[in-house]
Write a structure and sequence with these properties.
By secondary structure, the protein is α+β, with helices and mostly antiparallel strands. The chain folds into three domains: 100 residues, Rossmann fold (3-Layer(aba) Sandwich); 70 residues, 2-Layer Sandwich (Dna Ligase, domain 1); 246 residues, 2-Layer Sandwich (D-amino Acid Aminotransferase, Chain A, domain 1), CATH 3.30.470.20. Helix 4 packs antiparallel against helix 5 and helix 6 packs across helix 9. The longest helix is centred in the middle third of the chain and has 19 residues. The model has no long low-confidence stretch (mean pLDDT 97). It binds ligand MV4. The site of ligand MV4 has 17 residues, from strand 8, strand 12 and strand 13.
Length: 453
């Protein structure tokens, strides 16, 4: 039985995990860096241990120190949250070998999905549609050009060790292909220590739609519907919603089945996400799986009423999922706006500093997941997300109107945030119409005067 959990993370997700543990009667241990002494997760956990300096590489990425803290405090399990060590197969393995439960999938599943070419081949063999492209990685340029021609331009070159949009290059003809192929390989080698790349047909202006998976250690794999994450900028998502305004119930059923098949192919356990690209005609293609809880998980929680963090803990404890696919009801529409300490008028430059005044919205259908408060200083060392506003209601229209209302109530003084940007998007006809693809943000910024922010 899990009685005490170490939370190997910071910020809002650390708080989110503490809240789930409290309700389950599980004790919590926070670990923190020297820059996070005044953080809420440190104050609200039952115990806290400082694990190093402000830089992530000196603290939240130090597997050795985190496992030492786990042993000193005698915890039963580690929740990695998202980012940091959450998709590190070695860390999951170290936890396993120290007899500490890693609240996530088995290291074997992380490894399969961590290599994007292996992931693609694994799900393709299981009958899930993938983007037409090379059979696995290619290192020979002459052979690569042949493959690119056969697929037909434009093509996209992706790093095997990449994911989340890092290490990708697009080529429109033989000449640009030769150049981008080398750039992609060099960048991948530098960024990941692995220069292997593979090639795919480039899908223009796709929607980015992902399915939430929940799987137990007894072979049950369920999906909890989709999230449309098409509104993103430089591979940073800004808005996520469920259900997707684009999917028909027929397409949703097909994609849900494919998502379950993909997870089963990796013998997946715990919470995970299957990412698809969807083209204008409704063709969908698996692109990758995220083997962790995601930032946008509350959207699914508000639509289904299922607490994903609690389910992660139950599954890690060896319990069976207490419901079946048919029991999951998709009753609400939910929209999440990521609140970042950034200046949208200055090319989204980070805006760290002290929050002089903080007032979060509330009321019917409003949820705010955040670790900040009046007087809190945002450290410059970590990502800029300082909160998530999730608004939900019986229809998309209600969720949209509620989002605008809540954003108007949200007061954050002393720093720049993405709140005014979100207000402009919530009143933009293209977004309101449900027409946003992954090309949306670039178009929106080009036609919107920045003095609005
Ligand atoms: C693609 C694609 C088009 N065609 N793959 C972005 C996130 C990562 N998980 C995969 N991504 C993409 N993969 C194929 N075959 C378009 C994206 C993509 C994208 C690519 C380049 C620049 C901006 C982008 C924005 C969203 C999605």
């Amino acid at each position: 039985m899990i009685q005490k959990i170490l939370i190997a993370n910071r910020g809002e997700i650390a708080l989110r995990i503490i809240r789930a543990c409290r309700e389950l009667g599980i004790k919590t241990l926070a670990v923190y860096s020297e820059a996070d002494v005044q953080s809420l997760h440190v104050q609200l956990a039952d115990e806290a241990i400082c694990i190093g300096g402000p830089k992530s590489s000196d603290s939240y990425l130090r597997a050795d120190r985190i496992i030492s803290a786990a042993e000193i405090a005698d915890v039963d399990a580690i929740h990695p949250g998202y980012g940091f060590l959450s998709e590190n197969a070695k860390f999951a393995e170290q936890c396993e070998s120290c007899n500490i439960k890693f609240i996530g999938p088995k290291s074997k599943s992380i490894r399969i999905m961590g290599d994007k070419a292996v992931a693609k081949e694994t799900v393709r063999k299981a009958g899930v549609s993938t983007v037409p492209g090379s059979d696995g990685p290619i290192d020979n340029e002459a052979e690569a050009v042949k493959v690119a021609r056969k697929i037909g331009y434009p093509v996209i070159i992706k790093a095997v060790a990449g994911g989340g949009g890092r290490g990708m290059r697009i080529a429109h003809n033989d000449v640009s292909f030769a150049k981008e192929f080398h750039v992609a390989r060099n960048e991948a080698e530098k960024a990941f220590g692995n220069g292997a790349v593979y090639i795919e047909k480039y899908i223009e202006k796709p929607r980015h739609i992902e399915f939430q998976i929940l799987a137990d250690s007894h072979g049950k794999v369920l999906h909890l519907g989709e999230r449309d994450c098409s509104v993103q900028r430089r591979h940073q998502k800004l808005i996520e919603e469920s259900p997707s305004p684009f999917l028909t119930s027929d397409l949703r059923k097909k994609m849900g089945k494919a998502a379950i098949k993909a997870a089963e192919a990796a013998e997946y356990q715990n919470a995970g996400t299957i990412e698809f690209l969807v083209d204008a005609k409704g063709n969908f293609y698996f692109i990758e799986m995220n083997t962790r809880i995601q930032v946008e998980h509350p959207v699914t929680e508000e639509v289904t009423g299922i607490d994903l963090i609690k389910q992660q803990i139950h599954v890690a404890n060896g319990e069976k999922l207490g419901f079946d696919q048919g029991d999951i009801k998709f009753e609400k529409h939910a929209i999440e706006c990521r609140i970042n300490a950034e200046d949208p008028a200055r090319n989204f430059a980070p805006s760290p500093g002290t929050i002089s005044l903080y007032y979060a919205p509330g009321g019917h259908g409003v949820r705010v997941d955040s670790h900040v408060y009046s007087g809190y200083t945002i450290p410059p060392y970590y990502d800029s997300m300082i909160g998530k506003l999730i608004c939900y209601g019986s229809t998309r229209k209600v969720a949209l109107q509620r989002s605008y209302r809540a954003l108007s109530e949200y007061l954050i003084r002393g720093i720049k945030t993405t709140i005014p940007l979100h207000k402009a998007i919530m009143s933009d006809p293209v977004f309101i119409d449900g027409k946003a693809t992954t090309a949306y943000m670039e178009d929106f910024m080009s036609r919107t005067p920045t003095d609005l922010f």
